[in-house]
Amino acid sequence: MTSDFTVNMDQYLPLRDVVFNTLRQAILKGELKPGERLMEIALADKLGVSRTPIREALRKLEQEGLVFMIPRRGAQVADITEKDLNDVLEVRIALENLSVEKACKRMTEEQIKKLGLAAREFERTIAENNLVKLAEADVAFHEIIYQAADNQTLNQVQSNLREQIYRYRVEYLKDEEMRNQLVKEHEQLYLAMKERNVEKAQEISFHHIENQRKGIIRSIQGEANAAQKK
User: Fold this and answer.
1) Model pTM?
2) Core-most of 76, 142, 191, 194, by most CB within 10 Å?
3) Strand partners, 70
4) N- to C-terminal Cα distance for the chain?
5) Which of 35, 56, 53 has the alpha carbon at shortest distance from 44?
6) Rounded CA gap, 184 and 161, in Å?
7) Which residues contact 153 (CB under 8 A, 6 or more apart)?
8) pLDDT tens digit at each of 230 positions of the chain
9) 46 Cβ contact list (under 8 Å, min separation 6)
10) Are the C-beta atoms of residues 18 and 8 closer than 8 Å to each other?
């Protein structure tokens, strides 16, 4: 295992959560590559911990779809496939459609203002060239809409899906052209919701996700072609 990452201890978190967060970020940032085997002993030695928190972290990562277990061989970083992507985004489109509808009707003026500020913050974060931070800014923008929908059950379902989507967010944010497109779409969605125009906001939201899907597929295919040429 040649991946270069280290554990960052947090005195407020249990060790198992620190290890989980470290491995999760390494996968999301591409420090642990798709298809790479995750050996408990090697990870424990690298992070200076016992195998127990490593094992617990790998189980949680499996639940998020970032890792899968191979019988008698251990864990491996999950590949990003078109099928997985389409499955996740089909569900996201349906949830976003409902969230936008409810939020348009229920958003307070304060929440509308926060949505506009979140759109500006995403644009500002692009200059930092930090994919993980940029993905978090994208999450923060959409989270305002989810909260404004004011439906606890809907929020819980979206929360479960959010982790699966996170890796795809990082993937499409690698594309500079896609980042600039997202800035425009965030602004358009903010304005439509400010007008409380449900149909317009839903249409923008759909194209927003569909453009991401196409961008990620291009990235997946590009990486696959590059790997074949090696």
Assistant:
1) 0.77
2) 142
3) 74
4) 20
5) 53
6) 24
7) none
8) 556 676 666 657 788 899 998 998 888 777 888 889 999 999 999 999 999 999 999 999 998 888 999 888 889 998 878 888 899 899 999 999 999 999 999 999 999 999 999 999 999 999 998 888 898 999 999 999 999 999 999 999 988 788 778 777 877 888 888 899 999 999 999 999 999 999 999 999 999 999 988 888 887 777 667 666 76
9) 1
10) yes
Tokens of 79: 């590949």
Distances (CA, A) of 45 to 51, 83, 207, 225: 9, 35, 46, 34
Tokens of 4: 């270069």
Supply 29's token pair: 């940032």
- Enumerate the β-bridge partners of residue 75: 38, 69
How many residues are present in the chain? 230
Give the residue ranges of DSSP H helices in the chain.
15-28, 40-47, 51-63, 82-106, 109-126, 131-149, 152-172, 176-194, 198-229
The two structure tokens encoding residue 163: 């982790």
- The token pair that represents 75 in the structure block: 């864990």
Under 8 Å between Cβ of 190 and 115: yes
Encoding tokens for residue 19? 């290890």
